[in-house]
Design a protein that fits this description.
Immunoglobulin-like; four-stranded antiparallel β-sheet; DUF4352 domain-containing protein; 11 strands; signal; 4 helices; five-stranded antiparallel β-sheet; 235 residues
């Protein structure tokens, strides 16, 4: 009985496929075995875990007493640091009190020096328009602001109103500066006395300026022109 060529090729193909499958299975098994070397199955017995924990918890711990010398050293260091901090604080407070006393004594002994530091040679400056007088009496430094003592007087027969947000303050370069007014009346009665107030300007705005100028007008007519220039800046 003769076997046809087609049958032979089919059998050969089946043999090759089975051989390739066997070889690939062998290599896969071999590679998997190498990859899992050193890996063990986890313990899944909860009873054993509880038993281990109970054994650990029932094991007595050894009591180690602290050396008495160590305790005394720690207590001494703690109290010594506290006493040292208190002494340094008292010394600092006494030094500050001595400085304050010296400062107050120097001010009491030299009242003229304090007054001269707030007085400028060019002041007072004043301007008058239509019976209304504006006078800058003195200048002084108040913390971070430059303060000007200002007098306003209405010698006319009609009341005059002011809106002090219209007050223009400029430095020697013509730059506008923000200013705050205190104690000045919004309306000056006729034939009035002097009304005193203050104009305050932040010192940081006038670091590089030597003089200032004020310009104040009435509201709402804006007929008055109270202009004062060359107002000296004190440092």
């Amino acid at each position: 009985m003769k076997i046809s060529k087609t049958l032979k090729l089919t059998l050969l193909l089946l043999f090759v496929m089975s051989g390739a499958g066997t070889a690939s299975a062998y290599f896969a098994y071999h590679m998997g075995s190498q990859a899992l070397q050193g890996v063990s199955q986890p313990e899944n017995n909860p009873t054993k875990k509880l038993g281990d924990k109970s054994k650990k918890s029932t094991k007595p711990t050894e009591f180690k007493p602290i050396d008495e010398k160590t305790i005394l050293i720690r207590v001494y260091d703690h109290t010594h640091k506290k006493n040292k901090a208190a002494e340094s604080k008292n010394k600092q407070e006494s030094k500050n009190n001595q400085k304050e006393n010296k400062t107050s004594q120097s001010i009491d002994n030299n009242p003229q020096e304090l007054k001269s530091s707030q007085t400028v040679a060019n002041l007072p400056l004043q301007v008058k328009d239509q019976g209304v007088k504006l006078e800058i009496q003195e200048a002084s430094n108040e913390g971070t602001t430059l303060s000007f003592k200002v007098n306003l007087q209405n010698e006319g027969v009609t009341p005059v109103r002011f809106l002090y947000s219209f007050l223009e303050v400029k430095d020697s370069q013509g730059r506008a500066l923000s200013a705050i007014t205190e104690g000045l009346l919004q309306e000056l009665p006729p034939n009035s006395e002097n009304f005193v107030g203050k104009v305050k300007i932040p010192s940081a705005l006038i670091n590089d300026s030597q003089t200032l100028s004020f310009n104040l007008t009435d509201y709402p007519d804006q007929k008055l022109q109270l202009n004062i220039a060359q107002i000296p800046v004190i440092r």
